Amino acid sequence: MLEPSIVKDEDVEQLIKDVYQSYGYDFSLYSRASFKRRINRICLIDKFTSFAELRYTVLNDPDYLKHFIEEITVNVTEMFRDPYFFKALRDNILPQLGTYPLIRIWVAGCSTGEEAYSMAILLKEANLYHKSLIYATDINPSVLETARAGVFPLQQMKLYSENYILSGGKKDFSDYYTANYDSARFDKSLQQKLILSTHNLVSDSSFNSFQLIICRNVLIYFDRLLQERVFQLFDDSLENLGYLALGSKETLRFSNLSKYYHQADDQKIWKKLDLH
């Protein structure tokens, strides 16, 4: 099995170049430390005996490529993750959005969709779901399949239920899903206003105008240059007086765009000022 230290910096550069030239996935501005950690993890899990073997497999096996992209891009997610963030949305942001005739929300880098389903539940409980659209996007088509199915491991429901209650939820969380053996299938009504599609934050452009964009714990994998590019994409996609929600380790503070935003609360939610 390949020892983690065998993956050298130049190997990482070569692989980034190969994947871009062969498939068009551009990881050139991803944080190198993060990318290298994930390569090491892939090598250990999939028991490659050399870096050359990994590289050969990525370039010659399209099925393996899907798995590789998934491992590189997948973000750990859960329903109502960081419940106080969702409480801030519930108490402070949704009442503002409720004044719009149509509410458009973009969950960027949605992974397997738990955050988008959490958002659907919040909107239902605020009686705003009927006039909302949730666009949930990810670079990785296979995680979107999980999101589309709306089926998650039953063992996660205890944690999700606790998160939901801490977020200010008043119902019984089990009202939203049907338990079946070891899985939980979420109610189809939560998908009625959910639009799932692939979107690459690195290379794709703005596709709509939103009042709320949620992108949490994705930008930590990008270098400063790419973060700035993604912030510009979000700015192009966000209406004046709209909200941008980031992860706990992410900030707009050092961005060129920071002067056009102010922090709406201490849960990493930024409001776009009506300046430009």
Automatic annotation (TrEMBL):
SMART domains: MeTrc. This is Protein-glutamate O-methyltransferase CheR. Residues 1-252 form the CheR-type methyltransferase domain. Pfam families: CheR (PF01739), CheR_N (PF03705). It comes from Chryseobacterium paridis. InterPro entries: Bact_Chemotaxis_MeTrfase, CheR_C, CheR_MeTrfase, CheR_N, SAM-dependent_MTases_sf. Gene3D superfamilies: Vaccinia Virus protein VP39 (3.40.50.150).
